[in-house]
Design a protein that fits this description.
With 392 residues, this protein is of the alpha/beta class. The strands form 2 sheets. It has a 7-stranded parallel beta sheet, with helices on both faces. Strands 10-9-8-11-12-13 form a 6-stranded parallel beta sheet, with helices on both faces. Helix 4 links the parallel strand 4 and strand 5. Helix 1 crosses helix 18, helix 4 runs parallel beside helix 5 and helix 11 runs parallel beside helix 17. It binds uridine-diphosphate-N-acetylglucosamine (UD1). The site of uridine-diphosphate-N-acetylglucosamine has 19 residues, from helix 1, helix 5 and helix 12.
Length: 392
């Protein structure tokens, strides 16, 4: 078994991506790391957690992410199966590459699986988007976040709450770096390329309702197990969506998990309406166009809470909590859980008064990956110095 003692200057940092929300975060990191005049050697590892063309290939193309150097091709499975399979396939990669570090982003199963393999081999783990906490351990992502942070040597954070959370969990202050939000780097870079909504809806017969109606449209996404796996709750949620659609038409790009659940539970009737468009999962540029021009977003996604804050679009978060409190304190987000009355009252406020206004949080300026690179360059220099001393 190779360990970090075999570290040698010039070893690559293995950058891991696996699922859809990872791709927008890894893209700017890779671009900046490879930028001249001082590139930092990296290799991209794709775990294959998401593999459908709409969940994967489209993002690689649109975000101009280079083809992965290493593809683990794990696919779907239970959490234990998926996590274990990633670990089994990642271990030999770490052995053969002797990386300088393993960089993971976000909170998906690929994040914890690769962090755990690296940490057990004495390879430093770098976590981008560290410290976010919902304090809800029923969320698989919360478990992934807490554990990954405990294993990490460098922790890059997006908002001040993350620092508080990490300090409370005993992470040393000097390992925490507030660098901003790499997801917003991608948003800023892609804004000019966003696909106009009339092109996203070009095949839709009654598209004028969405494009020319007085109330505009609402974008809906749902995929959290806590929303779609509980039959009764999911039905109630879709009934709420139906009520919202009477006020403002709804565009609903459907995650594969959610599409499966709608079919299994026989809930199709609730979303069959001329005022609800069901779409396949969209590419990044289509989604960006859709959200930018929308009146309102309803979601259980983490990333959309941040993107709507930056785009100034009111966001209703259909969860009991958020790990991204800055989007509520400073941004356009309101966390409503499953409170139908509150949803309807926000919808009415949006239609009458424009809804919640906000401002962009500190350092969400499109330059987070530049800051990450600069911290990493210093850190690598120090490590190279230590390695040189150790080798006499
Ligand atoms: C994962 C992440 C979640 C993230 C979400 C974004 C974890 C714990 N969860 O959840 O944080 O917000 O991605 O999409 O890592 N499937 C396909 N095609 C695919 C991928 C998945 O059909 O390309 C289906 C499979 O039936 C699979 C199900 O979706 O069983 C769930 O996929 P999985 O990767 O397990 O978790 P997500 O719900 O996508």
């Amino acid at each position: 078994m190779k360990t970090s003692s075999q570290y040698s200057p010039g070893s690559p940092i293995l950058c891991v991506a696996g699922a859809r929300p990872n791709f927008m975060k890894i893209a700017p990191i890779i671009r900046r790391m490879q930028e001249k005049p001082d590139p930092i050697p990296i290799k991209l590892v794709h775990t294959g957690q998401h593999y459908d063309p709409q969940m994967n290939d489209t993002f690689f193309n649109q975000l101009q992410i280079p083809l992965p150097d290493i593809a683990l091709e794990v696919g779907s499975g239970s959490h234990a199966f998926q996590t274990a399979e990633i670990m089994k396939r990642f271990e030999p990669v770490v052995d053969s590459e002797s990386p300088a570090a393993v960089l993971v982003v976000g909170d998906v199963n690929s994040t914890i699986a690769c962090a755990l393999v690296a940490a057990k081999k004495g390879i430093p783990v770098i976590h981008v988007e560290a410290g976010l906490r919902s304090y809800d351990r029923t969320m698989p992502e919360e478990i992934n976040r807490v554990l990954t942070d405990q294993l990490s040597e460098l922790l890059f954070i997006t908002e001040p709450s993350a620092r508080e959370n990490l300090l409370q969990e005993g992470i040393a202050e000097q390992r925490i770096f507030h660098v901003g939000n790499v997801m917003i780097d991608t948003l800023r870079r892609c804004q000019a390329l966003a696909v106009p909504v009339q092109d996203v809806l070009s095949d839709l017969e009654n598209k004028d309702l969405y494009l020319k109606g007085d109330n505009g449209y609402c974008v809906l996404t749902l995929h959290r197990p806590s929303n779609v796996d509980n039959a009764q709750l999911f039905r109630q949620l879709l009934e709420t969506v139906r009520m919202v659609s009477e006020e403002v038409p709804v565009i609903f790009p459907i995650h594969p998990r959610t599409r499966n659940r709608i079919a299994e539970l026989g809930l199709q009737k609730l979303v069959e309406s001329p005022r609800i468009v069901q779409l396949q999962p969209l590419g990044y540029l289509e989604m960006l166009g859709l959200v930018s021009e929308s009146r309102l977003v309803m979601t259980d996604s983490g990333g959309l809470q941040e993107e709507t804050t930056v785009l100034g679009v009111p966001c209703i978060t259909l969860r009991d909590n958020t790990e991204r409190p800055v989007t509520v304190e400073q941004g356009t987000n309101t966390v409503v859980g499953h409170d139908r009355q509150q949803v309807m009252s926000i919808v009415s406020d949006v239609l009458r008064n424009g809804g919640k206004q906000g401002r962009t949080p500190e350092l969400w300026d499109g330059k987070a990956a530049i800051r990450i690179k600069s911290v990493l360059a210093d850190w690598l220099r120090r490590r190279d110095g230590q390695a040189a001393m150790a080798n006499g």
